[in-house]
Amino acid sequence: MHQHKHKHNHFEEEPMSMSRDCSGGRGLPACFRKGSALLALGLVWVAACSDDRTPTGPGDDVPSPSADRIATGQSGERGHEVAFHDISRQIKGFGGYFYDEEGNLVAWLVDPSEEARARSILEGVVKQRDLSAHERNTGRIVFRRAAWSFQDLSAWRDRATHPVLDISGVEWTDLDEAQNRLVVGISSAAVRGRVESVLRQQDVPLAAVLYEESSRASDELDLRDYKRGIEGGYQIQRQDGGTCTLGFNAYWGSTASFLTNSHCTAVVWGSTSTNMYQNDTSPASNQVGVELFDPTPWSCGLFGLIRCRWSDAAIILKRSSVSWSYGKIARTTFWGFGAGNSGSIVVDAKNPSMTIIGEYSFPTGGEMFDKMGRTTGWTYGFVKKTCVDMNKTSYAGPGLGRILCNDWTSYHSGSGDSGSPVFRWYGSTVRLAGLHWGSITSGGTRYGIISAMWNIEKDLGALSTF
Known about the structure:
A hairpin with a 3-residue loop joins strand 24 (368-373) and strand 25 (377-391). The protein starts with 9 loop residues before the first strand and ends in a 6-residue tail after the last helix. The chain is built from five helices and 29 strands. Among the domains are: 11-20 and 219-460, Thrombin, subunit H, CATH 2.40.10.10; 150-212, GMP Synthetase, Chain A, domain 3, CATH 3.30.300. It is mainly beta. Mean pLDDT is 86; it is low at 1-52 and 54-75. The strands form four sheets. Strands 13-12-16-17-20-15-14 form a seven-stranded antiparallel β-sheet, with no helix packed on it. A six-stranded antiparallel beta barrel has the order 24-25-26-29-28-27. Strands 2-3-5 form a three-stranded mixed β-sheet. The protein has helices spanning 82-88, 115-127, 150-165, 192-201, 453-460; strands at residues 10-11, 94-99, 105-109, 128-129, 141-145, 170-176, 181-186, 209-213, 215-216, 218-219, 230-232, 235-238, 243-245, 248-252, 255-260, 275-277, 287-293, 298-300, 306-309, 314-318, 324-330, 336-337, 353-359, 368-373, 377-391, 400-409, 421-425, 429-442, 445-452.
């Protein structure tokens, strides 16, 4: 009998196709939630950005999942930033850190005299870094002179995000660790003056803010074949034919279910008992589940006229008659790296799936993540922005929608990939990191957007996935 574990710059909504790796610290896997906030993750030498990838895993001593439960709703510190705040209390003028593409940890300091103390703390982060099979790690810590502390930037971001996002033409806001600035995504330069006026009202220094010309984020709706038992990465369709990707199987409490994007259901951020099929709606016996939980957003910003959620995720109740491959994600024959490069959608006959061994609550800038989607297949890339707040135009309920603290990556994606599982890859095993839901073009670069596991469980409650 299976014993599941209970772990207590045009922002477009990607059109749905109508065709047939933790509150304990930044970047901590969920299974490390009770560990130190500084254990940000596993030192292994690997080569990044190469198709000659030798998968290296966390070993056989993978910790058991935490029994912690993440409360739903808006309360509490952003999980992505707990470790940064913790380090800020120990290092005067700490400005955050990220990993560059060579594998160095790059840290910002307002006060260079704090370097020795910062190095002693951050050496623990480097030593415990969890590496995916794509990444390299030099073991080096590089310091840069910061203009602003992370605590100041965080306070300004928290104060200004909703008033700034209320401005027509503002697409997103971000505390950007790689630039040590607040960054605002705007549809045109004409919007900047209105943003600066609001920033002054919120007592945010204009010198701490940068701007990017940005598109509107877009939701993305083959691993396209019929598959039983159902598992992450395969095509699903809703009852009217909108095509997406099954993210991952999960127990929600004791309920066998699976997750995909909320916008893959009939109503964004609202439970409507949408019927879901795998791989398509014909014949009717292809129905695999019905929408179970897709909570309405809470009121935030602009006198409560804005509606916020942390993720684009919904729980689908699995039909009892449908078999599933719990803890599995499909594996295809090859991957694509970076913008514009699709991977294979052909399942590897000799090695058809990967096993989920843990969860990865949220990313750190510069880390690598993989995605498995029905349209562009297996792709991977670098995390470029973390914890970005943006308007969610696909929300059609009362007020205006806003999605908080989501992450941008350089992996390739396309229409139909919505709901794809995002993960850290170790060869035959993975750590589940969240759901892909859309794309955005900002500063001339196209990014894929992730709702991390922390965000999903913040919205939906605790899930058991392996």
